[in-house]
Structures are given as C-alpha cells and as structure tokens.
Design a protein that fits this description.
This protein has 118 residues and is mainly α. It contains six helices and no strands. α2 packs across α3 and α3 packs across α6. The chain starts with a helix and ends in a 7-residue tail after the last helix.
Length: 118
C-alpha cells in the first residue's frame, strides 16, 4: 500500500511538471501573475486582461521581473506626477525590449485593431 501511494504521488508530480513545461501551464500561471501585477499597478482589469497574454508571450520571466522597477520607490507617488518622473521610472527598468513590449501591448489593447500587427 505504501509503495502504491508513493507511486501515485510521483506520477501526480510528474503530470503537473509535464503540464507546466509542455502543456502551457507555466504560460497560464505567468499570464495570471502579470494580470494581477498590472491591476495592482492601477491598470483597469479589462486592459490588464488584454495586456497580460501579450506580455507573458513576448517577455522572459527576468524581463517581467525588471518591469517591477517601475513601481514607486520610497518618497514617490503611486502614479508619476509628471512626464519626467514617468521617464525616470521607465529608465530604471533598463530593458528597452521589455518597455517596448509593454507599450505596444498597452497601445494594442487601448486602440484595438489599429496597433494589432505592431
């Protein structure tokens, strides 16, 4: 009975691992994580739902982590007060591709089909 239970647990763990690696499970987890982070950053839910899959598909996990640098630091307002502060936060990311993908996702989700092929 003990060996059967151990075998069942092992097969379950392998199944979950295979789903995460081969079945797109990690993509789904990443999309949800990105969506939640966008909403917490003040992006409307509908916009975040549109942007998250695009960002999760095109950015690595490391790039997504770099985007967290846009969050306000001590002494900064929750939202940038002006363009200079917004640019300073974007420069902290130090990954032009991550910034570009985020801006394109936001534009595509805001303006619909016009930016769809960007």
């Amino acid at each position: 009975m003990g060996r059967f239970l151990l075998l069942l647990i092992l097969l379950g763990a392998l199944g979950v691992g295979a789903w995460l690696y081969f079945g797109g499970g990690m993509q789904a987890v990443t999309e949800r994580t990105v969506e939640v982070a966008l909403v917490e950053a003040g992006v409307p839910q509908e916009q975040a739902e549109c942007m998250a899959p695009r960002m999760a598909e095109r950015l690595t996990t490391d790039q997504l982590r770099k985007l967290q640098k846009v969050a306000p630091e001590e002494g900064e307002a929750a939202l940038p007060r002006d363009a200079a502060e917004a640019l300073a936060r974007i420069r902290r990311v130090d990954d032009p591709e991550a910034v570009e993908v985020t801006v394109r996702a936001a534009a595509a989700c805001t303006f619909g089909g016009f930016f769809e092929n960007l």
